[in-house]
Design brief:
- The protein has helices at 35-49, 69-86, 95-101, 144-152, 164-176, 192-204, 223-239, and strands at 3-7, 13-18, 23-29, 59-65, 90-94, 109-117, 120-129, 132-143, 158-161, 180-182.
- A hairpin with a 4-residue loop joins strand 2 (13-18) and strand 3.
- The protein contains 7 helices and 10 strands.
- Helix content is 38%, strand content 28%.
- The protein is of the alpha/beta class and 240 residues long.
- Strands 3-2-1-4-5 form a 5-stranded mixed beta sheet, with helices on both faces.
């Protein structure tokens, strides 16, 4: 079984191809958020380099969110299109679960963080047990101070990764001190290989979807939608 996975949920554009035995190829570009221009050329290049055609892929996978609203739309639309053209199933993987998967067999818990701005992060809490990654706290959008308070109630070592670390590392260290550990740079960003391996496991368990059912998981409304709702609320109040 061969899976092609992409992740465009952050500034990183990444694509990987994996089969049951190995990672065949991976492309990671951590430079500027121009996914609409770059993701399809990346997909074409990695297929060509791996001497594969799009119809050779058995499963198409994507990081479905949370993350950048535009990035998620691009990634999901790309995978839906490829799966549609080739009549293949898809698997959507949580961006946060894929980030946690970057830090295998960690002691304690893994807390991936993506900056959601306004002192908030997208995060979850994960733990490795018997070679498998388990969800302790489901993905959420939360204020960084509330997340730290939640973690202060736990006794384990905590490994953080994701772009939220770059923003809130000092705050975390001040509160959690030597309980806080930080992933190396190579594990601190999105990797399509993590999406691919998680998707491969789901596919083997029969947990695949039709491209028609795949949707981004935004987790919260976009800024534009919040502004629209605010205006509509004000208009409603003025009409009373």
């Amino acid at each position: 079984m061969i899976v092609l996975a992409i992740d465009t949920s952050s500034i990183v554009a990444t694509c990987a191809i994996m089969d049951d035995e190995k990672l065949i190829g991976e492309y990671i570009l951590n430079h500027k958020r121009t996914h609409s221009q770059k993701i399809m050329p990346i997909v074409k290049e990695i297929l060509s380099s791996c001497e594969l055609k799009s119809e050779d892929i058995d499963i198409y996978a994507v990081a479905k969110g949370p993350g950048s609203f535009t990035g998620l739309r691009i990634g999901v639309a790309t995978i839906k299109s490829l799966a549609h053209v080739n009549n293949k199933p898809v698997v959507g993987i949580s961006t946060l679960e894929a980030l946690a998967f970057n830090v295998p067999y960690s002691e304690g818990i893994v807390v991936p963080m993506m900056d959601a701005r306004r002192d908030r992060v997208y995060t979850g809490i994960y733990k490795w047990e018997n070679g498998a990654l388990y969800v302790i706290e489901e993905p959420m959008a939360i204020e960084i101070d509330k997340l730290v308070d939640m973690l202060l109630e736990r006794n384990e070592k905590i490994v953080f990764n994701g772009d939220g670390v770059l923003v809130y590392k000092d705050n975390i260290l001040q509160q959690l001190e030597n309980r806080a550990l930080f992933a190396p740079l190579s594990a601190n960003m999105a990797r399509a290989s993590s999406v691919a391996e998680l998707a491969l496991a789901r596919a083997k368990a029969g947990k695949v979807d039709s491209y028609m059912d795949l949707l981004p998981d935004y987790m919260r409304e976009s800024q534009a939608q919040r502004e629209y709702n605010k205006k509509m609320k004000l208009c409603g109040e003025n009409d009373e």
